[in-house]
Design goal:
The protein has 64 residues and is α+β, with helices and mostly antiparallel strands. The protein has helices spanning 3-20, 53-62, and strands at 26-33, 36-44. It has one domain (1-45). Helices cover 44% and strands 27% of the residues. The protein is rod-shaped and about 70 Å long.
Length: 64
């Protein structure tokens, strides 16, 4: 493998690592065309704590 290809591979791995950095919930999609990575997509989701309907009702009733 040529030196230029190694450098490209290292940059690609760095970009993938950056996409994964601090990702708690979500996905990373790597798009390949003709054996070449052409796109990296990061989809991040934020999880919010679920509240029970009864808790919401009580808060509305008591004004809290």
């Amino acid at each position: 493998m040529a030196k230029k290809e190694n450098a490209l591979d290292e940059r690609l791995w760095e970009r993938i690592a950056r996409a994964l950095d601090s990702l708690e919930y979500g996905s990373i999609h790597i798009v390949v065309h003709d054996s070449q990575v052409v796109q990296i997509e990061r989809t991040e989701k934020y999880r919010l704590p679920a509240e029970k309907a009864e808790t919401k009702y009580n808060q509305a009733r008591t004004g809290r």
